[in-house]
Amino acid sequence: MACLDLLLHIDSYPAPMPAALIDESVALAASLGGKLTGLAIEIDIPVQSNRMAEYLIGLSALGRQEEERCREACKAGLEHFSTAARAAGVFNEAILGRTNYLDRDEDVTRRARARDLCLLPRTPGIERQFDVAQAVVFGCGRPVLIYQPGALGDLATWPEVAVIAWDGSRGAARAMADALPLLKRARLVRVLTVVNEKPGATFELGVDPVRHLLMHGVAAVRDEIDIGGETIGVAMEAYLQREGARLLVMGAYGHSRVREFLLGGATNYALRATACPVLLSH
Q1: Helices (H) and strands (E) in the chain, counts
Q2: Sign, CA torsion 42/45/46/49
Q3: Cα separation of 282 and 272, whole Å?
């Protein structure tokens, strides 16, 4: 699969996306030879007001102010995106959507379904982005790349080391296939199995995916680490830092239950905490 058709979610609320994150995303699209669509979504804030709230704080007016702040952030983000993407030769479209605050997740998910890859930058300290990422990963049926400021530099050139979290599952297989355009750019791909964390994750489980990657011309080796008494997040982060990983590829695991998910430990870690970019497939 080639990454020719990419979608970038330009977050606008509660804080606008930094311009540097947009620039990094444009650079990645250019390095992949793809075209990039920017999506920013204005929000309508439902206000359940009453006389006391209006008298004390002017709740309805505050809601309108927040909507206007979001609107201006959307326009500024799309303007910056359009300029940068056109200059890099990757501009496809700039979409300004509008939806209820509570439905933003579904709007991004719907638009990501007909894309090769959805880019979801993560600004530290904004918890609402976790909800958007969670919904898109589990709902769009396409690979999603999550990253924080400054993390995309190596992916846009030639990453030294990429890691596939391999437990032999359908999700891991899907993620490996979805990530091939990025894995082919790495100097080395490490197929990592964390043992004593899941019943089926055993030593030498990575032999077959390594064979498959070698058939595609990807330099690959297998690794195993024993989780011991640590959490999966702590164990994986220590491994990624030790090996100098610049990309983590993994399947996402969770069960939907009316707008909330029960996440596996590794998925929760990947959505929230990993320092390097992570490509998730479900």
Answers
A1: 10, 12
A2: negative
A3: 17
Cα–Cα nearest to 243, from 196, 282, 189: 189
DSSP per residue, 43-96: EE------HHHHHHH-HHHHHHHHHHHHHHHHHHHHHHHHHHHHHHT-EEEEEE
What is the chain's length?
282
- Given a contact cutoff of 8 angstroms between Cβ atoms, the answer to whether 110 and 67 are in contact is no
pLDDT tens for each residue of 113-165: 999 999 999 887 676 778 888 899 999 999 999 998 888 877 777 778 999 99
Residue 180 token pair: 């091939």
Task: Find where tokens 């982005």 sit.
Answer: 129
The amino acid at residue 279 is L
Give the domains, in start order, of the chain with CATH numbers: 5-147 (3.40.50.620), 161-281 (3.40.50.620)
Cβ atoms within 10 Å of 105's Cβ, excluding its own: 19
Nearest of 122, 142, 147, 144 to residue 246 by alpha carbon? 147
> How far is the C-alpha of 224 from the C-alpha of 106, rounded, in Å?
37
For tokens 């509008």, name the residue: 98
Strands 278-281 and 144-147: antiparallel
Residues 6+ apart with CB under 8 A from 86: none
Kindly report whether the global pTM for this prediction surpasses the value 0.85. Answer: yes
